[in-house]
Amino acid sequence: MIRVLLAEDMHMVRGALVALLNLESDIEVVAEVASGDEILPTAKAVQPDVAVIDIDLPGKDGLTAAMEIHESLPDVHTLILTSLGRPGTVRRALDAKVNGFLLKDAPSDKLANAVRSVAVGRRVIDSELALAAWETDECPLTPREIEILRLAARGRNVADIASELYLSPGTVRNYLAAVVTKLNARNRVHAIRIATEAEWL
């Protein structure tokens, strides 16, 4: 019997997923939670074989929770469900070392089969999502450039960013200029939009 922990904040969706999985003779949902903060403590308590996690949860997001499970409970496999098929999200999921990544509107038998595959250590990625991730560009920015652009996106000015990161204002301006150049952006605002849409921030 494959023991499943299910994390989904929408009550009706969670109920439907639990019912679908419990119809399978070899799958049992042993715990269900509605927020990302509950995932790791519940997983530690019930020791599931697979954690099926919605990517958008209140509290911690699904990918953060999946990373925590990977670090603390390496024997628990993770399957991420998402209604967002954006390439950047897929890349983040792969970086988080999740075992599976599936669109929420996939047929019910596909979900059950994905749980079975993930339970035995196979990687399951929806083919359309995998293709989109394969075709998307790698982020050309360095971690420091992303950090500075993220602060700029939050409305911080050059002086604020310089103070927060213990850099000179001139250095911050140089980083932002490099970002604009690398992204072929018209200006800083355009660079923020490009990076946000690509899910690099």
UniProtKB/TrEMBL annotation:
Residue ranges of domain HTH luxR-type in the record: 133-199
Molecular function in Gene Ontology: DNA binding
Sections of the chain in a coiled coil: none
Residues of the Response regulatory domain: 3-119
SMART domains assigned: HTH_LUXR, REC
Record flagged with keyword Phosphoprotein: yes
SUPFAM superfamilies for the chain: C-terminal effector domain of the bipartite response regulators (SSF46894), CheY-like (SSF52172)
Keyword field: DNA-binding, Phosphoprotein
PTM annotation (4-aspartylphosphate): residues: D54
PANTHER family reported in the protein's UniProt record: TRANSCRIPTIONAL REGULATORY PROTEIN DESR, TWO-COMPONENT RESPONSE REGULATOR
Protein name as it appears in the record: DNA-binding response regulator
UniProt lineage: Bacteria, Bacillati, Actinomycetota, Actinomycetes, Pseudonocardiales
